[in-house]
């Protein structure tokens, strides 16, 4: 009887494996408008969390933000839903994640640069970015020169890091630039006095100050002329066209301004 039970179990396992082998893998396809997607019915977005107010998790664990809301418009235009993948920023800006098929589009508060254009195709700009110097409330720091002999925090792999390192080198400042892996680590370093000041995009600091009143203040701004763009794999003209059309429609019908007011707070300038 025991031998028979074992035979039945082995047969059942074999059937399960056979059925698993027959399961059809989702290799994606194209939308009705001819846009290729890596997964049927989904616009898969690569981002790097947290980076509020552009993308972060709310109290329920849902990823929300300005970037998320804008890409939702693109997904709606394509007749699909957005699926978000949290991944290191290095893989996003290098084009690796898009090239490998991890996602269809990158939306990560990413500045358009000539270097990144070599490996990514960017959408039309959707946000004008300004770098800002933040300090713990009460500290009298207004310029980089006042940080002589001090530690200045930046987020690694960002244009803010590039800008600060260039400024420190060109001005021959005695400032130790410390790079952190993500925004959360940078903000933690500043709030616990591991660094004297920190640099990142202005809306990011504004969001942090709103969530942590009285702890941190913006001491100075740096108008670097940066603009954010969404990115797609090199040569993905169909998706890029859909993204630009969705952005243009949102700006013309007032949706962009409403989303901007909701997530950023100030009146948009583009």
Automatic annotation (TrEMBL):
UniProt domain Ionotropic glutamate receptor C-terminal: residue ranges: 42-266
Cellular component annotations (GO), alphabetically ordered: membrane
The keyword Signal appears for this protein: yes
InterPro entries named in the record: Iontro_rcpt_C, Solute-binding_3/MltF_N
Originating species: Actinoplanes xinjiangensis
Keyword Protease: no
Signal peptide: 1-23
PROSITE patterns tied to this protein: PROKAR_LIPOPROTEIN
UniProt domain Solute-binding protein family 3/N-terminal: residue ranges: 42-267
Source species taxonomy: Bacteria, Bacillati, Actinomycetota, Actinomycetes, Micromonosporales
Protein name: Polar amino acid transport system substrate-binding protein
């Amino acid at each position: 009887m025991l031998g028979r039970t074992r035979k039945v179990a082995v047969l059942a396992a074999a059937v399960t494996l056979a059925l698993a082998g027959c399961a059809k893998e989702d290799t994606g396809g194209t939308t009705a408008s001819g846009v290729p997607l890596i997964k049927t019915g989904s616009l898969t977005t690569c981002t790097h969390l947290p980076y509020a107010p552009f993308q972060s998790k709310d109290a329920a664990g849902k990823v929300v933000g300005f970037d998320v809301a804008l890409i939702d418009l693109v997904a709606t235009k394509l007749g699909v839903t957005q699926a978000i993948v949290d991944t290191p920023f290095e893989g996003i800006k290098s084009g690796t994640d898009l090239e490998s098929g991890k996602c269809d589009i990158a939306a990560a508060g990413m500045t358009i640069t000539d270097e990144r254009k070599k490996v990514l195709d960017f959408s039309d700009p959707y946000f004008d970015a300004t770098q800002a110097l933040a300090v713990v409330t009460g500290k009298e720091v207004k310029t980089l020169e006042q940080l002589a002999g001090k530690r200045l925090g930046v987020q690694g792999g960002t244009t803010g890091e590039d800008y600060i390192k260039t400024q420190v080198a060109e001005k021959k400042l005695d400032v130790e630039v410390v790079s952190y892996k993500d925004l959360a680590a940078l903000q933690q370093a500043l709030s616990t006095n591991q660094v004297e000041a920190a640099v990142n995009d202005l809306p990011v600091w504004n969001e942090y100050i709103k969530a942590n009143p009285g702890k941190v203040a913006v001491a100075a701004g740096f108008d670097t002329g940066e603009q954010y763009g969404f990115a797609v794999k090199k040569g993905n003209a169909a998706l890029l066209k859909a993204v630009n059309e969705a952005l243009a429609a949102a700006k013309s019908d007032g949706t962009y301004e409403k989303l901007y007011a909701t997530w950023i707070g100030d009146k948009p300038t583009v």
